[in-house]
Design a protein that fits this description.
CATH class of the largest domain: Alpha Beta
CATH superfamily of the largest domain: Porphobilinogen deaminase, C-terminal domain
Number of domains: 2
Length: about 130
């Protein structure tokens, strides 16, 4: 694996999304002989993390190249959803935005890596396309 290629692709994805390095986590793991990349975003306002998207490939560079291709065509392939939610014990309602093929996929991204009882969802709205 070429670590310079991996670093270049990670930087390019970060720049294309317009996020700071601290707002993205690239999580790699081996899964059934393949590499899986979970790209996780961290919201600086409410300090929660969400799945942006996952890709599966031969190695880290392959996953990152697929992710870069995805972010370049992001608006062409998925709908925009607004979710209103609150964590257990919190009084403030939060609003998050997700790109997904359907409402279930948007909810999967919201709940990624956490207990289903940790968040109460109040609304899932498909945003009008522009």
């Amino acid at each position: 694996m070429d670590e310079f290629e991996v670093a270049r692709l990670e930087r390019e994805i970060q720049q294309y999304l317009g996020l700071e390095a601290a707002q993205l986590r690239f999580e790699f793991r081996e899964l059934e002989g393949q590499t899986r990349l979970d790209l996780v975003t961290l919201n600086p306002r409410h300090h929660q993390s969400f799945l942006f998207r996952f890709e599966t490939g031969r190695d880290e560079a392959d996953c990152l190249q697929q992710m870069l291709d995805y972010v370049k065509r992001l608006r062409d392939t998925e709908s925009s959803y607004t979710l209103q939610w609150r964590t257990r014990g919190d009084k403030e309602l939060q609003t998050s935005y997700f790109r997904a093929h359907n409402a279930y996929e948007a909810l999967d991204k919201l709940y990624f890596g956490r207990d289903l009882n940790a968040i109460t969802v109040f609304s899932v709205v498909l945003n009008p396309s522009s």
